[in-house]
Specification:
Rossmann fold, alpha/beta, 5-stranded parallel sheet, 319 residues, 13 helices
């Protein structure tokens, strides 16, 4: 009888333990936050990350915009904006994992290019208990989701929602003006001059152009290697030479170009915009990155196309 009682007690304890474990698991799942990154990682976390290393300039800029300067322990060697990044320790995906570990980050933010090019470093960081998240939106709709994911990871959900709302409100205000333009200017938007590349429809630079009231002359461009860049050969450009009112080119690391190079390009002399000196350069950082400064890019393009309409918006942006 005594042995039987002990057996019953053990069984009861085991059942109780299992029940408690189930309750704990259910409770954890209910309270935990989850999201999926670009690589398909299922990120599960119970509290915001507070020691972040950002290896992509857009991540860094957005984190600052969310008021997370104190949570950033390191940034990419290429980061230049905002100016405060100069005070942060610089990291590269070429660095040894020990450098990362020494700063005890709980989150390393990357983008697919880094994930694909440096898998050993990412695996080493993950095996050391560091959460690695790869994010990079391919278009404007994904950009909003991307901002919300950054807010979720850092406990700035409300600020991220405001960030999305304010951007939409400002761009809607611009669209309300540009939609009334009776005859819109047709624009060729150059991405990389040396390879004759433009942007695909739906890419952020094209969103900026179209929001500003421009018509993308290369709307038939096809994506190259699943990117937002498209090869658009010289023959294709020149076939539309008489239609191109404005020749717009991004300028920066991706496209080290100037107006004289564009003018001297063999064959470009027949392009309407070249003949009329309607050639403009725009900083790639304000048209190609998924950051709030994209609005500045929209206004800058608008000033090239319709200065009378965008003058007031430019004044607001400069304040």
């Amino acid at each position: 009888m005594f042995k039987q009682s002990r057996s019953i007690i053990r069984q009861t304890k085991n059942i109780t333990g299992i029940i408690l474990l189930i309750i704990f698991i259910i409770s954890f799942k209910c309270s935990a936050l989850t999201l999926t990154d670009k690589k398909g990682r299922q990120i599960v976390f119970k509290k915001p990350f507070t020691r972040i290393i950002s290896l992509y300039g857009a991540h860094t800029e957005n984190l600052y915009h969310l008021g997370l300067e104190d949570a950033i322990v390191g940034v990419s060697v290429n980061d230049t904006f905002p100016p405060q990044v100069d005070k942060k320790t610089k990291f590269s995906y070429h660095d040894d994992s020990e450098k990362f570990l020494a700063f005890m980050p709980d989150l390393v933010l990357i983008r697919p290019m880094i994930d694909n090019g440096y898998p050993k470093l990412m695996n080493r960081l993950e095996k050391s208990g560091i959460t690695v998240v790869s994010l990079q939106p391919s278009g404007i709709k994904e950009m909003y989701d991307y901002w919300l994911k950054l807010g979720k990871l850092t406990g700035k959900d409300h600020k991220a929602k405001i960030m999305v709302q304010e951007f939409k409100e400002k761009t809607d205000r611009i669209k309300a003006k540009t939609n009334k333009i009776p005859v819109k200017k047709k624009v060729y938007f150059e991405a990389i001059h040396t390879r004759m590349k433009t942007f695909t429809p739906g890419a952020m630079p094209i969103f900026a152009l179209e929001t500003a009231g421009g018509i993308n002359i290369a709307s038939d461009a096809k994506a190259s290697r699943n990117t937002n860049i498209a090869i658009y050969g010289k023959e294709q450009i020149l076939a539309k030479a008489s239609q191109i009112d404005v020749f717009l080119a991004q300028k920066g690391v991706m496209n080290a170009v100037n107006i004289e190079i564009i003018k001297r390009e063999p064959g470009f002399n027949i392009i309407k915009a070249i003949k009329n000196n309607q050639i403009y350069l725009i900083d790639e950082n304000i048209v190609s990155r998924p950051v709030p400064r994209l609005y500045k890019g929209i206004v800058s393009i608008g000033m090239f196309l319709y200065p009378d309409i965008f003058f007031q918006e430019k004044l607001k942006e400069d304040l």
